[in-house]
Every structure is written in C-alpha cells, then in structure tokens.
Design brief:
Double Stranded RNA Binding Domain, 2 domains, Peptide chain release factor, six-stranded mixed sheet, PrfH, Alpha-Beta Plaits, three-stranded antiparallel sheet, Prokaryotic/Mito_RF, single chain, 9 strands, 206 residues, alpha+beta, Pep_chain_release_fac_I_sf
Length: 206
C-alpha cells in the first residue's frame, strides 16, 4: 500500500549551528530518499537568520514500506562538528529533532472549508489581463491560511492551482499543530539534548 508521510526537522530553538544541521539533515534525507526511489518534496522551509540555515523543514515522503527509512531518522539527530560560525567555540555536539506523521492522521482536507474569491489581475499582460477577473484568492476558513494565484489568464485553471497550493499549505499548518501537541518538549533545546540520539553524524558543517 502506498504510504504518505510528513517529515519535519526542527532545530528545537537551538543556536545557529543547530539551524545549519537542519539544512544538512534535510539534504541528506532528500538524497537518501531519492536513492531509494521514494518520492520526496519540500513543502515548507522556515529560514533562520544566517544563510544556509533553517529553523525547520517540512517534507512529504511517498512510497512503499517507508518504515525502515523513517526508523533511521525519526528522533534526535546528533551532529558532531566544529562550529562554522564560532571559530574557538569548544562545543562540538549539535542536536535537531526529526518527526514523522502519517498524512491520514492530519485533519481531513475538505474543499467545502475553502472560500474562493476572484478579482482582476494586475501586472504585465496588457489590458486583457485587467478586463477579466482571472486572479483567484483561496482562504481556508478553519485556519485562515490564504493563497493568491495569478498564474494564467484562465480563471478555472487558477482555481485548480489555488486549491492544490492551499492544500499543500494546510498540510504544513496541520503538521505544525500536531507537533505542538505531541512534541512540545522540542521547543526546549535542553530537553532535546538530553534525549538519546537516534542517529549520530560526524561531518563538517561548512
């Protein structure tokens, strides 16, 4: 049976080095999943202050028999490396959390919860763009999440794209809600540190 899982990597509010580890772990997971012929896509990245760092990353993994792959990553990942930002910093152990959620555990997607509004597009395209209400704004009423689409001159096509993008955003929003409920301890980096590491990686962060 085809499985769909949401993977989220979090820095647990750790320092810049942990945010760098989030980006590195994301890269490793993407590469490994594709090598194993799973379909994986990034749904959302929350950027941290420094270039090449992430507060968190949310991805969707699709395939058969995902259990062994997820078992290797889910939990606390310990990354052993010299800080790339603080040259003389003695600490070399950095921790991030990896969680996985079955898409079916998340709130059911119901198009009836979406309010679609049309309006005139603005920008390049000449008068034809502005005469007809081709732009579409979709609002997911339970969450308030919005998407605005002006990709094409077809209102119908824009509506289709709006619903697809809004559903992807809602999956991310639902995952964040679930993480807050089930993994609240990850908001505290010290609790994350005390956990037994599921995976230990020794590699430069540069």
């Amino acid at each position: 049976m085809m499985e769909k899982m949401i993977i989220q990597i979090t820095s647990g509010q750790g320092p810049a080095e942990c945010c760098r580890v989030v980006a590195c772990v994301q890269s490793l997971i993407l590469k490994q999943a594709r090598n194993q012929r799973f379909h994986i896509e990034v749904l959302d990245n929350k950027a941290a202050e420094l270039k090449g760092t992430l507060l968190s990353s949310t991805m969707m993994l699709t395939g058969y028999n995902l259990g062994p792959f997820l078992k290797e990553w889910v939990g606390t990942v310990q990354w052993i490396a010299q800080s790339p930002y603080r040259r003389y910093h003695k600490r070399k152990n950095w921790f991030v959390g990896v969680a996985a959620f079955d898409v079916q555990q998340l709130m059911k997607w119901d198009p009836k919860d979406v309010k679609l509004e049309t309006c005139r597009s603005s920008g390049p395209g000449g008068q034809n763009v502005n005469k007809v209400e081709t732009a579409v704004r979709g609002t997911h009423l339970p969450s308030g999440v919005q998407v605005f689409v002006t990709d094409t001159r077809s209102q119908l096509e824009n509506k289709k794209r709006c619903l697809i993008r809004l559903q992807e955003k809602i999956v991310v929003w639902q995952t964040e809600q679930l993480m807050e409920q089930r993994y609240g301890q990850w908001q505290n980096h010290h609790e994350l540190e005390r956990g037994n590491a599921t995976k230990i990686i020794k590699q430069d962060l540069f």
